[in-house]
């Protein structure tokens, strides 16, 4: 049995290039530098800096501190969003009828009422709340379907006694 090492190596390189290409396509157009990207940028600055004129350490520490503060603020905002959404469980809400698409982690296209020329709405008690920490989205469950809590147009009344008050936190899965 002969092994074609060069062919296997070429195939592995092609597969690696495809994965890298697909991963880079996911980040196109976001305009955001995540934590990992920032660290890679900082390491590149260190690697390619002029050895006769190195970068000031206080600049790097300041950048790192700012990154940490931004992460902490994001965590606080997410906790606040989830807390607000969790407090709505049992209350009746009216929102745009655009169900959450768990495959793409976005609100689906809203149902349209062509007679009134407006997006249809859904009204019902909020049965449960899910939080997608990856995307910072609170999702509310009404009539067995999940919707983005940002689409709530009206919140009515107090909690009903027959409604579940369970809340869960996810990373973009469910449905």
What does this structure look like?
By secondary structure, the chain is α+β, with helices and mostly antiparallel strands. It has a domain at 83-170. Helix content is 38%, strand content 25%. It is built from 3 helices and 10 strands. β2 and β3 form a beta hairpin. The chain is flat, with a radius of gyration of 24 Å. The N and C termini lie far apart (49 Å).
Question: What's the layout of helices and strands?
Answer:
Layout: H1 5-27, H2 35-47, H3 57-86, E1 92-96, E2 100-101, E3 106-107, E4 112-113, E5 118-119, E6 121-132, E7 137-142, E8 145-148, E9 152-156, E10 167-170
Parallel strand pairs: 6-10
Antiparallel strand pairs: 1-6, 1-9, 2-3, 4-5, 6-7, 7-8
Order of helices and strands: HHHEEEEEEEEEE
Structural class: alpha+beta
Percent range for β-strand residues: 25-35%
Number of helices: 3
Task: Measure the end-to-end span.
Answer: 49 Å
Spans of 5+ residues with little confidence (pLDDT < 50)? 160-175
Q: Summarize the biggest pleated sheet.
A: 6 strands, mixed
Task: Work out the number of β strands.
Answer: 10
Name the overall outline. flat
Mean pLDDT: 76
Q: Bin the helical content.
A: 25-40%
Cα-atom Rg, whole angstroms?
A: 24 Å
């Amino acid at each position: 049995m002969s092994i074609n090492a060069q062919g296997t190596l070429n195939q592995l390189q092609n597969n690696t290039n495809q994965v890298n290409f697909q991963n880079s396509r996911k980040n196109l157009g976001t305009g955001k530098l995540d934590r990992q990207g920032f660290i890679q940028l900082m390491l590149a600055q260190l690697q390619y800096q002029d050895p006769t004129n190195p970068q000031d350490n206080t600049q790097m520490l300041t950048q790192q501190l700012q990154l940490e503060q931004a992460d902490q603020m994001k965590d606080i905002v997410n906790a606040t969003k989830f807390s607000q959404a969790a407090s709505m469980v049992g209350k009746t809400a009216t929102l745009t009828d655009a169900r959450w698409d768990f495959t793409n982690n976005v609100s689906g296209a809203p149902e349209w009422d062509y007679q009134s020329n407006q997006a249809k709405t859904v009204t019902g008690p909020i049965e449960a709340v899910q939080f997608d920490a990856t995307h910072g989205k609170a999702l509310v469950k009404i009539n067995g379907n999940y919707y983005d809590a940002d689409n709530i147009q009206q919140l009515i009344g107090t909690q009903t006694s027959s409604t579940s008050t369970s809340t869960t936190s996810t990373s973009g899965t469910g449905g």
